[in-house]
Amino acid sequence: MECPNCHKNASRVIDSRPSDENRAIRRRRECENCGFRFTTFERVERSPLLVIKNDGTREAFNRDKILHGVMMAAQKRPISSEQLDTLVDHVENEIRKQGLNEISSKDIGNLVMKELANLDDVAYIRFASIYRQFKDVSGFMEAMEDMMAKHDKE
């Protein structure tokens, strides 16, 4: 595997262990050229999944887009990157469980919001404000009321 430091193709595995609830293998590698250590992950290749965007176009599912969105929503919140990665895993697993080849971006957004609501209220509201494209304060207030109603039920 290519070293991210010196770009030589000479590395060796120095540690290997299950990761992501046994859905991946985490490998710690060391470059034989420069000694730089880095981590790689091995995951099962899954069948392609297409996302139907709001304008009707389709694109390949990209978990990194979801991760980026939740990272932005969780900025300066007490949420670890591991928690965000787990959230994205839950969303992706939920999508895959449905056995579909295509899913709308709206459905993905709803799954993300459901997961965020269980993780952090502020991150949920931040994500909702972009995902739902609030036009004014009333849309924001509706999201806040939804969150408060959820807490009242608990």
Topology:
Blueprint: E1 11-19, E2 24-31, E3 37-43, E4 50-52, E5 58-60, H1 63-73, H2 81-97, E6 102-104, H3 105-119, H4 121-131, H5 137-153
Parallel strand pairs: 4-6
Antiparallel strand pairs: 1-2, 2-3, 4-5
Keywords: ATP-binding, DNA-binding, Metal-binding, Nucleotide-binding, Repressor, Transcription, Transcription regulation, Zinc, Zinc-finger
GO molecular function: ATP binding; DNA binding; zinc ion binding
Family: Belongs to the NrdR family.
Radius of gyration: 19 Å
The pLDDT mean sits at: 90
* Helix count, DSSP H or I runs of 4 or more residues: 5
The tally of strands reads 6
> How do the strands of the widest beta sheet line up side by side?
1-2-3
Major sheet details? 3 strands, antiparallel
User: Which segments are poorly predicted (pLDDT under 50) over 5 or more consecutive residues?
Assistant: none
Shape type = elongated
Instruction: Tell me the β content.
Output: 15-25%
List the helices and strands in order: EEEEEHHEHHH
Structural class: alpha+beta
- In percent, how helical is the residue content? 40-55%
Number of domains: 2
How far apart the termini lie comes to 49 Å
Cofactor: Zn(2+)
Family: Belongs to the NrdR family.
GO biological process, one term: negative regulation of DNA-templated transcription
Zinc finger (unnamed): 3-34
